[in-house]
Specification:
Blueprint lengths: L1 E8 L5 E3 L2 H7 L3 E5 L5 E5 H12 L6 H12 L2 E3 L6 E3 L2 H7 L4 E8 L1 E6 H13 L1 H7 L6
Antiparallel strand pairs: 1-7, 2-6, 3-4, 3-5, 4-8, 7-8
């Protein structure tokens, strides 16, 4: 399980250090793709396979299903860590997530998310204000 928040930088070549706590669970090869809310989703191969199987079952006759699978799979790229524990993030993915320098890497259960620091701070501030309401709206969410 991935959890926690880490702050790193993307260098001029598009490389980013992956937090040590995430490296073992990501494995030697993992998938990075466009996520929702202008972040990147990072999946270990086993989780990617589960997601791929679910998305394959969406009806291709439905416009929304076609649009979502195109969005999700067209941005996906298989990645590996270099010897320094860095991943090279493809230029189109960096542009999508607006990753220029400072970034925030968070663990979200079965995946890792990579955010531009500015976008993360905006998102977190907006969500923090309505966190109680969000939790209340989740039907079977007993904490």
């Amino acid at each position: 399980m991935f959890m926690g928040e880490f702050h790193h930088n993307v260098d001029e070549k598009g490389r980013m250090i992956v937090p040590i706590k995430f490296r073992d669970d990501l494995g030697s090869s993992f998938v990075v793709t466009r996520g929702l809310d202008r972040c990147l989703f990072v999946y270990p191969q086993a989780e990617w396979k589960k997601l791929e199987d679910q998305l394959k079952n969406l009806p291709f006759t439905k416009k929304d299903a076609r649009a979502f699978t195109r969005f999700f799979f067209s941005g996906a790229t298989e990645c590996e860590l270099d010897k320094q524990g860095r991943v090279n993030i493809a230029s189109p993915l960096r542009e999508y997530a607006q990753l220029e320098k400072e970034c925030v890497i968070i663990g979200v259960s079965n995946r890792v998310e990579v955010w531009s620091k500015n976008i993360w701070e905006e998102y977190f501030a907006e969500s923090e204000e309505s966190f109680s309401e969000i939790a209340e709206n989740l039907v079977d969410f007993d904490l």
